[in-house]
Amino acid sequence: MQKRKISFNWLHLSSMVENEEVFANVESNLLVLLSNIGALPKVQRKYNITKDKFCFVENYRFDERTHCVELLFKSAKHSYRAPLLDKNTVEARENPKRIEEGEQIKTHVLLKLKDNDAIVFLETGLNLMTMSNIVEYLNSFIVLYNNSTEERIIGKFTFSMVPRDDFREVLDSMSRVVCAELFINKSLLGSDALNFCDITEDIQENMVLSLKSEKKKSIKNSLYQVISHFSGSNSKINRIRVKGKMPNNNEGIIDTSFIIKKEYIEVEQNADTGEFDTPSMFAQLKLLANDF
Predict the structure, then answer these.
(1) Is residue 124 within 8 Å of 77, Cβ to Cβ?
(2) Closest alpha carbon to 226 in 214, 209, 244
(3) Cys-Cys crosslink for 181: which of 161, 230, 241, 282, Cβ 3.0 to 4.6 Å?
(4) Tell me: the pLDDT tens digits for 86-141?
(5) Closest of 41, 44, 101 to residue 75, by C-alpha
(6) What's the rounded Cα separation, in Å, for the pair 184 and 208?
(7) Alpha carbon 94 to chain centroid distance?
């Protein structure tokens, strides 16, 4: 068994409407897109990441019960075939591969579809696909899909990092908070605060209240008061998700349901090829996803 590092990200689908970012449902659009990609011949699933590196979706599987998507990418770097060196004898021999060939590299991705977005559990390492590569790949196939049908996918995929530190600590470090979502128990609909009538079973258990800052302003100070209520024993707020600028000026999302400590999983490795076993990898990733 070998350790593999896992990164955690949010995947979004959004478009700009009247200078405001509008988010669409990731689940329905992503599944349509992946189904379309999966129906293509393998050579048509190929995408050139750089002039000497390409990738494609080898396969995907959607589990309706867990709302998880197993996504396997394969990639390779080509245009380099220097002689091979033996680690024991340091003797060189001619490289048998063709110049257009490269060693196959697998990147395992598990997406848990949740609250219109997707939590992405991504295998990370040298030469593996990055979140930027994956988003670029998906967006390129949105264009091809939209050109082939009237059932268009509106927007493009983006992603945000998920810090795995203390929620309050990461909030403190944010230079600006642009928006927050409060997931509130639907029982508030019948309270004096909202004064609505009969509650029906059609309404989901959690309502989402969105808070957005004025242009170029921050709502961080207001959120500190919200957090004090969130931690109370009688709180009707079940979850808080915040989007803002991290210390490195990148966008980041923190979520009270996503405070996680484990960053590594142990996976079986093929002794002959050095590749990590795909069923073992997805089994471990699904154990991580079970908590969310």
Answers:
(1) no
(2) 209
(3) 241
(4) 999 999 999 999 999 999 999 999 999 987 789 999 999 889 999 999 999 999 99
(5) 101
(6) 6
(7) 41
Return the closest-CA partner of residue 212 out of 252, 250, 244, 180: 180
Token pair of 240, please?
């808080």
State both tokens at 43.
């050579």
Q: 189 φ, ψ to 5°?
A: -60, -30
Q: How far apart are CA 184 and CA 252, in angstroms?
A: 22
Q: What tens digit of pLDDT does each residue of 222-251 get? A: 888 777 665 554 566 777 888 888 777 777
Question: For residue 8, what is the enclosing H or E element?
Answer: strand 2-17
Partners of 4 in the β-ladder: 265
Give the 3-state DSSP-derived string for 153-189, with helices as H, strands as E and coil as C.
CCCEEEEEECCCCCHHHHHHHCCEEEEEEEEEEHHHH
Give the position of tokens 């405001």: 20
Radius of gyration of the chain (CA): 22
CA–CA distance, 26 with 113 (Å, rounded to integer):
7
Token pair recorded at residue 232: 């109370």
State the virtual CA torsion across 150, 10, 115, 186 in degrees, nearest 10. Answer: -150
Closest to 206 measured CA to CA, from 243, 240, 234: 240
185 near 178, Cβ under 8 Å? no
Closest C-alpha among 169, 172, 174, 196 to residue 184: 196
Beta carbons within 8 Å of 141's beta carbon, 6+ residues apart: 33, 36, 37, 47
